[in-house]
Predict the 3D structure of the following.
Amino acid sequence: MFDLKWSQAEKVIARRAFDMALQKELQATIHEAKRRAAKVEEPSELWELESWLTERRGDINRRYDYRYSVLPIVFAHLVRDGHLKLDDLQGLDSEKLERIRRWATL
């Protein structure tokens, strides 16, 4: 999608921010899954939990795409959704940060 060049330092920053956001979202999902599982009393509720987990897995797999060509858009979505702050991306070049900042407001 974009032909942006990523320095080695930027790759380290990007990986750290990406992994941090992913871990936060996974931890929140674990917490919610445990809360829901504690309420399961009927077999149908068990399958509802399974369905919810499958949906969450799909959402997370779609959202967290670590291809450099789409990473600025991924970061913009994560910033917009509150999973990352722009400060977490400091060290990326100004062009990338500006794109992320702009897209996060759309």
Summary: Residues 8-38 form the longest helix (31 residues).
